[in-house]
């Protein structure tokens, strides 16, 4: 499993297919749905609350999002987990994607408790997801897909979680 920034960037490049914007060649919608359901149930169990979620996002490379409610977190800020249709990629963020510069920034500002983040990261790892830091996803996109038509400054987030 990719752990370093170098390994994660290599994985992002490996998964990139300019012929397939919304989902990869061997995309199995039923399997992705099943895995996503397990993630929702796991986070509900771990945080002891019902989590709001949306799934099977249309016209996007993002499959869905799970939201751990603010009242279930130590800092009182909801946690959002975004899941891509590509390679079981996931992103964890406080409040919403882009609300902070990343989880480090959210922790420094008192919006994200390290133990809450560890709980989410552990669930993702145990369920086979690859968690990619928001800071890395917000870096300039350096792959073969022509994303400029979607956004002036495409990012890795645009590629794997954005609308197509």
Cα-atom Rg, whole angstroms? 15 Å
Low-confidence stretches: none
* Number of helical stretches of at least 4 residues: 6
Measured by DSSP, the beta-strand proportion falls in 15-25%
Shape: globular
Helix content: 25-40%
Q: Indicate the structural class.
A: alpha+beta
* Separation of the first and last Cα atoms: 27 Å
User: Mean of residue pLDDT?
Assistant: 93
Instruction: Give the ordered list of helices and strands.
Output: HHEEEEHHEHH
Task: Characterize the main sheet.
Answer: 5 strands, mixed
Strand tally, please? 5
Can you describe this structure?
With 164 residues, the chain is an alpha+beta fold. 36% of the residues lie in helices and 15% in strands. The protein has helices spanning 5-15, 29-47, 103-108, 114-126, 134-137, 156-161, and strands spanning 52-55, 62-68, 79-84, 89-94, 130-131. The protein has a five-stranded mixed sheet, with helices on one face. Helix 2 runs antiparallel to helix 4. The two termini are 27 Å apart. The model has no long low-confidence stretch (mean pLDDT 93).
């Amino acid at each position: 499993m990719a752990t370093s920034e170098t390994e994660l960037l290599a994985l992002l490049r490996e998964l990139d297919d300019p012929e397939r914007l919304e989902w990869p060649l061997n995309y199995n919608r039923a399997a992705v749905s099943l895995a996503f359901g397990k993630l929702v149930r796991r986070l509900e169990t771990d945080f002891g609350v019902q989590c709001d979620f949306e799934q099977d996002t249309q016209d996007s490379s993002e499959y869905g999002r799970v939201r751990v409610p603010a009242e279930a977190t130590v800092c009182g800020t909801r946690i959002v987990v975004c899941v891509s249709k590509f390679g079981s990629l996931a992103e964890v963020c406080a409040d919403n994607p882009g609300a902070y510069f990343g989880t480090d920034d959210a922790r420094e500002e008192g919006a994200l408790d390290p133990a809450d983040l560890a709980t989410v990261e552990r669930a993702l790892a145990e369920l086979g997801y690859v968690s990619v830091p928001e800071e890395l996803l917000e870096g300039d996109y350096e792959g073969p897909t022509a994303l400029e038509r979607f956004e002036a400054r495409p990012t890795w987030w645009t590629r794997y979680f954005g609308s197509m």
